[in-house]
Amino acid sequence: MSEQNTLKHLQTVTDSLEAGTTVQIRYLLNGALPAQDVARLLESSPPKERKLLWELIEDKNEGEVLQYLSEDIGVQFMKDMDTERLIAVSEHFESDDLADLLQHLPETIVKEVLASMTAQDRMRVEALLSYSEDSAGGLMNTDTITIRPNITLDIVFRYLRRHATLPDMTDSLLVVSRSDRLLGTLPLTKLLVSDVDLTVRDIMETECTVITAETPANEVAQLFEKMDLVSAPVIDSNTQKLLGRITIDDVVDVIRDEAEHSMLSMAGLDDDEDTFSPILKTTRRRAVWLGINLVTAFIASYVIGLFQDTLDQVVALAILMPIVASMGGIAGSQVLTLVIRGIALNQIGATNTRWLLNRELIVGLINGLLWATVIAALTALWFDNIKIAYIIAGAIIINLLFAATTGTLLPILLKKLGIDPALAGSVILTTVTDVVGFLSFLGLATIFLI
């Protein structure tokens, strides 16, 4: 459903709710729209309307809609369900998606849902729950088709016909030993064009991309992008036994989540931020970073206060002061964003950090000289004071060099300390460029004017 259609249906729902009629809404939610479009409609609705819409969805359709909802919203609905209803909707989920949601539910409910499953399904979900949701083990699906290397392709074809349907995104069959150690893969494209009398061993590919269960999700996404994969087997790093497989649809979710995380973290927001989350919840989440920003603002104000006598004597300094801080902030943000991106793509390490820092210092110096000249000329014309022009030019150059240094080294340092650079980097950078900007500008003014 396009964005325009989403808004159109949202308006229809709003009009119907205001008119007190639900017939058309029930029709949209229970058949007229695909489950993924119903999920988008729920996500695009404020909390009160969202709750009303959810109550209008028939029980038989809830599970299908839930699997398309964002994790935060899906968990909210599941927490309000009784155990019997929760067990019913869980039947619609793939094992990996169900495991992701169960991790956010109370342990007693999780145990009851697991107890309701068949032994095979329970083992699959429990295996997934043992891994972090941000790892290959948490991403993988245990629904795989495995074959032995010594059977003929004719037997493989008969085996596949008995399955009736293949798991989604199946582009190859996984070849395993009797102890379930992964031996290789058999691409369906090879299977379809090969002689049925050949054995699997004759045409299987032993050189294939294999992922260990502990591999971080972002590294999995990079591997899929680099190798143009549709699916990849996941193995135990110790035993080499096959555990499951990861498919491209799961990787797309990782890439989208990473992009949302980076974008929201730069503003100090949680990456599971719901556009229409309740007022108190939103307020609580944002208050933390507003408080941190207040502390940094007081630090910058304290630095300004140190030069109160200088400001009292030269009013022009107060007028020009924000320019220095602003130029440093923008320059630093450009470098910070570039380095955070490089870290996310695993492009930055000990071998190239020095080169990158030198590059950014040279760029900062060139830009500093360029814009310092422009700002100094405008200042001289504005205030008819050549000393102030020289002072602001010097402060601009100093701040841009500090911005380049901080923007380059700060995210690398935060990463080593285990702190998310996207979440904390911008706040620290702003403080540094503000403090250095004010300190250099007012300090130079105190030395050469007073």
From TrEMBL:
Its main location: membrane. It holds the Pfam family CBS. The chain crosses the membrane at residues 287-308, 314-340, 361-382, 388-414, 426-449. SUPFAM superfamilies: CBS-domain pair, MgtE membrane domain-like, MgtE N-terminal domain-like. The keyword tRNA processing does not apply. The keyword Cell membrane applies. Keywords: CBS domain, Cell membrane, Magnesium, Membrane, Metal-binding, Transmembrane, Transmembrane helix, Transport. Gene3D superfamilies: CBS-domain (3.10.580.10), MgtE N-terminal domain-like (1.25.60.10), SLC41 divalent cation transporters, integral membrane domain (1.10.357.20). Homodimer. PANTHER family: MAGNESIUM TRANSPORTER MGTE. Belongs to the SLC41A transporter family. This is Magnesium transporter MgtE. It comes from Marinomonas algarum. The lineage of its organism: Bacteria, Pseudomonadati, Pseudomonadota, Gammaproteobacteria, Oceanospirillales. The gene is mgtE.
